[in-house]
Design brief:
By secondary structure, the protein is an alpha/beta fold. Helices cover about 35% and strands about 20% of the residues. The two termini are about 15 Å apart.
């Protein structure tokens, strides 16, 4: 028996109109939705540079962009409707100019995208997505505390990031980027995760929760 089934269903019910897994019709809808998201995550957003083969962090930048499209932020997450949708990098930046160049001019719904590098973890509350660099791995507990109660998606690519309380962990397997979602952490963000996104992810829970059964 899958111990994550209950958590998965609770998160899906955050989205109105999402069918339960039990019926044949529901399964067809989930399969169709998964295929749509697979295409979205395998293709670059319109206008991404195609002149050179894309490296690991080009792909991870694309994932950050697509996460923003399949997760809803409450209106209160932004100072005003005109505020930019901000993707931040906390710690040593592994992207270089990739984020700036590839996200320039892009929009998330009606909001322009902005990229920031953070010098202080307390600034993370002002971002919608925060990529936590491996250089900050030793400070993850403090980072989690600094965004407590805020609508902030924490993404990292260090081993165990999700189980330690991060929201999404990116991994590179067979030259493909895959991702893990911590459903406990997702619930704490106050964000609405599309069932289409959850269907593609490996789901885990907080490490201490898992140890407790």
């Amino acid at each position: 028996m899958d111990p994550l089934n209950g958590t998965r269903h609770r998160l899906w019910r955050l989205r109105p109109g999402i069918p339960r897994e039990g019926s044949r019709h529901a399964r067809k809808q989930i399969i169709a939705a998964t295929l749509i998201v697979c295409v979205a995550f395998s293709m670059s957003p319109a206008g991404w540079a195609q002149s050179n083969p894309r490296g690991e962090y080009d792909l991870k930048a694309a994932f950050l962009f697509n996460f923003a499209k399949f997760i809803d932020w409450p209106a209160g997450s932004f100072t005003s409707p005109q505020s930019p949708f901000t993707i931040c990098v906390l710690g040593r930046d592994p992207f270089g100019r990739v984020l700036d160049d590839n996200l320039q001019g892009k929009m998330i719904r009606d909001q322009p995208l902005a990229v920031r590098r953070l010098k202080d973890r307390t600034e993370a509350r002002r971002c919608q997505v925060v990529f936590v660099s491996s250089s900050e791995n030793a400070h993850l507990a403090e980072i989690l505390e600094s965004v407590r109660g805020a609508n902030v998606l924490l993404v990292g690519d260090t081993i165990g990031f999700a189980a330690a309380g991060g929201t999404i962990e990116l991994t590179l397997e067979d030259n493909r980027v895959r991702f893990t979602i911590n459903t406990d952490a997702a619930g704490r963000t106050g964000l609405t995760f599309s069932s289409k996104l959850l269907a593609l992810a490996k789901l885990v829970r907080d490490a201490e929760h898992s140890k407790g059964g």
